[in-house]
Amino acid sequence: MARSTARPVAKLKSSAGTGVTYVTRKNRSNDPDRLVLRKFDPVLGEHVLFREER
């Protein structure tokens, strides 16, 4: 599958400050703002907000 500029790779960083990151792809036309997802932080052992960094 070819890479697309409509679906760039987004790096998500934990808002808890533990340094944990996730990598995902997002649809730029549906989500033009920075992505915020609630995901599991294995250092804390609970779900926290992960925000897109650039």
TrEMBL record:
Transmembrane segments: none annotated. InterPro entries: Ribosomal_bL33, Ribosomal_bL33_CS, Ribosomal_bL33_sf, Ribosomal_zn-bd. The keyword Ribonucleoprotein applies. It comes from the Bacteria. It holds the Pfam family Ribosomal_L33. The keyword Ribosomal protein applies. Keywords: Ribonucleoprotein, Ribosomal protein. Residues 1-27 are annotated as: Disordered. GO terms for cellular component: ribosome. HAMAP family: Ribosomal_bL33 (MF_00294). Belongs to the bacterial ribosomal protein bL33 family. This is Large ribosomal subunit protein bL33. It comes from Streptomyces galbus. The gene is rpmG.
